[in-house]
């Protein structure tokens, strides 16, 4: 599929697709006489390299000429100040209850007017890397923010000759217009008491547009763009996935396609890129953003590169060879007098970098084979390293009540406990459509495509740490068909593969009490959706019944 960029004159007008109020406010700014079009990565690199405050390291971009850069390009570092994570409290989504679009439109009008004195840069990328699903996105951002623009063009697919041809060969679908995003990290704020005075992220995903104001962190721009891309996918028959997917290429021309879903810091990237001591031939789709076709079961990557934490990659680490840009890290001089990055979150939490596609040697943009399994990654201390969910309703609702802990990729509102166990449906805090849409799509994958569904706990189990070797061990047993699952205690719809050192004792009153409490937390969460946001995220009745059946097994 492709999106629509050009219109016949009789297609333009009131009530016609692509011509609504918010979109008209944002799109017009892209054609101002203060706008400079940035057409190539080479142009974006030079602008970012020369932007005030950029640290041009002496670390070369590995094989940069293969994806649109000059051969002598260097890794660029830019630091955002004290804000080094996403800020969900600033998000406003059109269509949700109590979101005043008329009020937000006026704020965006003024924000755009205030940039008339600035030079603005217009960049374009593709989201989705196969002709089956490719959409075009536009970013408008002021001079001085060249590093955000350059990273944005790297994170998504810049307009290379290959992908331009691919996009031309894709078929337009429906009336989906291109994505337009207006960003001004230098926004001076609003006096309107209904909003944070310094930052605002307004999404009108039904109209494929957004305004990102007062937000310097690149992750806001990456996930903000993906937010709209995922919404388009949702409308067109795809399950939108914040997770990773890999294919195990097994003997006798067999394969096993596994999808893992988890928040930043849950282990989804580690699992996706794990080489399993070279026991398998592995093909990687992506570790953060992809979509699954609910009719065919095939999957498509949304972006070519990786926006990864730098905490686990010391300066000397071989993986740093694949860095393209870095954010919120430090720098120093090495023994050869070269400027190099200082990683490991010494400067601050959530240091980040964009790594090239080459980091994963067996990358593909699409996995044609239908997905075999979904793994919900949780950090729930009452869940053993792995359990298998039977029944489509339970499998989907456990994803809708995915329990985990916050990571330092998020900037939390005042008063929020960063250590509290929280529910983040499908590990995707970037949803801009009703939760039932995701519930139905994942339920369909299990019910109609016979996708297996598991929970894996990568945190602690009753005080004992589940190590990466444990997590990879249970996954390997599943892939090889050696995992012997049996009914877990009284639960008719949950099976357990008993892993040495982590076998739950349902005869222990304390454990049973905690397990019941965590399951009741899920029940309460689903019940709360009936009134939260006016019922915007209410789930079907079978979702709640599936959870209550689990709780009844503990009574």
From TrEMBL:
Lineage, uppermost ranks: Bacteria, Bacillati, Bacillota, Clostridia, Lachnospirales
Key words, A-Z: ATP-binding, Kinase, Lyase, Nucleotide-binding, Pyruvate, Transferase
Family of this protein: Belongs to the phosphoenolpyruvate carboxykinase (ATP) family.
A Pfam family the protein falls into: PEPCK_ATP
The protein's annotated pathway: Carbohydrate biosynthesis; gluconeogenesis
Coiled coil: none
A GO molecular-function annotation: kinase activity
Protein's name according to its UniProt entry: phosphoenolpyruvate carboxykinase (ATP)
Reaction it catalyzes: oxaloacetate + ATP = phosphoenolpyruvate + ADP + CO2
Source organism: Lachnoclostridium phytofermentans (strain ATCC 700394 / DSM 18823 / ISDg)
């Amino acid at each position: 599929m492709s999106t629509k960029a050009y219109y016949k004159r009789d297609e333009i007008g009131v009530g016609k697709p692509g011509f609504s109020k918010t979109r008209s406010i944002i799109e017009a700014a892209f054609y101002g006489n203060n706008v400079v079009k940035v057409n190539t990565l080479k142009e974006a690199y030079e602008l970012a390299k020369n932007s005030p405050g950029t640290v041009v390291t002496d670390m070369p971009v590995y094989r940069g000429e293969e994806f649109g850069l000059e051969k002598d390009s260097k890794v660029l570092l830019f630091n955002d100040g004290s804000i080094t994570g996403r800020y969900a409290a600033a998000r406003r989504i059109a269509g949700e209850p109590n979101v005043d679009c008329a009020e937000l439109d006026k704020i965006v009008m003024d924000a755009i007017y205030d940039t008339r004195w600035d030079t603005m840069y217009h960049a374009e990328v593709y989201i989705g890397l196969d002709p089956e699903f490719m959409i075009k996105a536009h970013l408008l951002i002021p001079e001085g923010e060249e590093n955000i623009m350059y990273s944005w063009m790297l994170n998504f697919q810049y307009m290379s000759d290959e992908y331009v041809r691919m996009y031309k060969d894709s078929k337009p679908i429906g009336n989906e217009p291109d994505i337009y995003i207006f960003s001004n990290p230098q926004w001076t704020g609003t006096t309107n008491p209904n909003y944070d005075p310094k930052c605002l992220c307004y999404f009108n995903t039904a109209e494929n547009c957004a305004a990102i104001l007062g937000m310097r962190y690149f992750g806001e721009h990456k996930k903000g763009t993906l937010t709209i891309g995922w919404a388009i996918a949702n409308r067109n028959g795809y399950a939108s996935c914040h997770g990773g997917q890999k294919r195990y290429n097994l003997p006798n021309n067999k394969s096993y396609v596994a999808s893992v879903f988890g928040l930043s810091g849950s282990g989804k990237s580690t699992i996706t890129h794990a080489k399993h001591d070279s026991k398998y031939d592995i093909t990687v789709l992506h570790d953060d953003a992809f979509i699954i076709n609910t009719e065919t079961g095939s999957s498509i990557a949304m972006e070519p590169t990786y926006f990864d934490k730098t905490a686990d990659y010391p300066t000397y680490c071989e993986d740093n060879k694949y860095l393209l840009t870095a954010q919120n890290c430090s720098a120093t001089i090495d023994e050869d007098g070269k400027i190099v990055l200082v990683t490991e979150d010494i400067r601050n939490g959530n240091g980040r970098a964009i790594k090239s596609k080459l980091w994963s040697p067996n990358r593909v943009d699409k996995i044609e084979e239908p997905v075999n399994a979904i793994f919900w990654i949780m950090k729930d201390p009452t869940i053993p390293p792995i359990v298998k969910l039977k029944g489509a309703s339970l499998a989907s609702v456990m994803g809708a009540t995915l329990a985990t802990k916050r990571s330092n990729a998020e900037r939390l509102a005042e008063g929020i406990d960063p250590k509290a166990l929280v529910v983040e449906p499908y590990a995707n805090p970037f949803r801009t459509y009703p939760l039932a849409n995701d519930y139905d799509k994942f339920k369909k994958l299990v019910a109609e495509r016979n996708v297996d569904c598991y929970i894996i706990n990568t945190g602690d189990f009753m005080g004992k740490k589940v190590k990466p070797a444990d997590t990879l061990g249970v996954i390997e047993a599943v892939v090889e068909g050696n995992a012997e699952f049996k009914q877990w205690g009284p639960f008719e719809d949950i099976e357990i593969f008993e892993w040495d050192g982590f076998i739950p004792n349902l005869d222990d009153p304390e454990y049973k009490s905690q397990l019941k409490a965590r399951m009741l937390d899920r029940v309460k969460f689903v019940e709360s959706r009936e009134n939260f946001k006016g019922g915007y995220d209410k789930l079907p009745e079978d979702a709640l019944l599936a959870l209550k059946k689990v709780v009844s097994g503990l009574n």
